[in-house]
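Field reference: sequence -> structure
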Amino acid sequence: LGERGLAEEAFQSALKEYPRKKDFHSNIHTDLGGSLKKRGLLVVAKQEYELALRFDPENKEAMEKLASLK
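Structure field:
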């Protein structure tokens, strides 16, 4: 899997463990998007940033990273 793959698995695990923490989910989706972007998976990264903004529409980091993909 490599280091990034392991990080993505850890993000997914954290999302399952804390299903009701919206700000936490927003941050995890933002971080997961960043990891995916670094791997060149831009479409999936965009989806993660969009999910982050659904959980927290004021997440400035997710907004900036999503804008950088357009």
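Note: The first helix runs from residue 2 to 17.
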